[in-house]
Write a structure and sequence with these properties.
By secondary structure, the chain is mainly alpha-helical. 75% of the residues lie in helices and 0% in strands. It contains 13 helices and no strands. The chain has helices spanning 4-23, 29-54, 57-81, 86-93, 96-108, 114-132, 141-162, 171-189, 197-203, 206-233, 236-243, 246-256, 264-283. The protein is globular, with a radius of gyration of 19 Å. The two termini are 26 Å apart.
């Protein structure tokens, strides 16, 4: 039963791509993000208050810097999600599992096992089949944005592992600082990127408010607390294995609820992405002792 909450996190993260499509259009992405994060901060703030008061200046600056990167990730992911299918979005973003060991290996100049390189190649072939549905046409703009988000996610994971100022900091407090910095980015950009957040909020009906609360309370707040607790009571590898099912759930929601239709080649491509990313995760070198804790990795839209 202790694994059930973590599996539920993977499920809600898998649903986040569909949820984004229900509450955001290209012109309202930034306003929606400001609302989503704005709902989380006051709920998370009281729990983090005491720890926030103990943060040093360097920790505030380090957390804020990572928050700017986090804001970039969410912008890429959310714009990508509204320009491609929920199924594609969930599968493409899972490439972070492959990109991170590759980047870490390059920085450390440590070769990866051949089996991992084979798994990475399998995932890349899968993406080509998935986004082109077996044809020669170029990927959609949303697919490319999701691919960019996977790259920036990788950068964020590596940067978090190397920012000395926050290595020993309270996770809850630093996470609040990151979310606050990202929220400030969305609030600053919103007036120049479409309608203001309160205008979008006023236009939402009950269904859209339901999806927005789903994104804020379940995909962000609930997921964060469960993940933080899980890595302290069980092994990070076990948590990672369960969270690795996220793209599978994204495909389930995309096909059953959003009506995404995949041809035979795209179905094969999606299967190759799932197999390649899981194979790569299992065969990558064990993380070094200073690697970023699992609870600090952003994982979903």
């Amino acid at each position: 039963m202790r694994d059930l909450p973590v599996l539920l996190v993977a499920v809600v993260w898998g649903s986040s791509f569909l949820a984004v499509q229900r509450v955001a259009e290209p012109g309202t992405v930034v306003a929606m993000l400001a609302l989503r994060f704005g709902l989380v901060l006051p709920v998370l703030g009281p729990a983090a208050w005491r720890s926030l008061r103990r943060l040093r200046r360097a920790e505030w600056l380090g957390g804020a810097g990572l928050g700017l990167v986090l804001g970039g990730i969410f912008l890429l992911e959310t714009f990508g999600a509204v320009h491609t299918s929920a199924t594609n979005a969930g599968l493409i973003i899972s490439l972070t599992i492959v990109f991170t060991p590759l980047a870490e290996s390059a920085l450390a100049r440590t070769p990866l096992p051949r089996s991992f390189l084979a798994a990475a190649g399998l995932a890349v072939v899968g993406i080509a089949l998935l986004t082109g549905d077996g044809g020669l046409r170029a990927p959609a703009s949303g697919d490319l944005l999701m691919l960019g988000a996977a790259v920036v996610r990788t950068i964020n994971v590596l940067a978090t592992a190397r920012v000395r100022a926050i290595r020993e900091s309270d996770t809850l407090a630093v996470t609040w600082v990151q979310l606050a910095a990202a929220t400030l980015v969305f609030a600053a950009v919103a007036p120049f990127a479409g309608p203001l957040p309160w205008t979008v909020a006023a236009a939402y009906g009950p269904a859209q408010w339901g999806w927005l609360l789903h994104l804020a309370l379940l995909c962000t707040l609930f997921a964060f607390f469960v993940q933080m607790r899980a890595v302290r009571t069980t092994s990070p590898s076990r948590v990672s294995l369960l969270l690795g099912t996220e793209p599978l759930w994204a495909a389930v929601f995309g096909i059953t609820l959003a009506g995404n239709h995949l041809g035979p080649s795209a179905l094969l491509g999606g299967a190759l992405v799932l197999v390649g990313t899981e194979w790569g995760r299992r065969t990558a070198l064990a993380p070094r002792s200073e690697a970023v804790p699992a609870e600090r990795e952003p994982t979903a839209v």
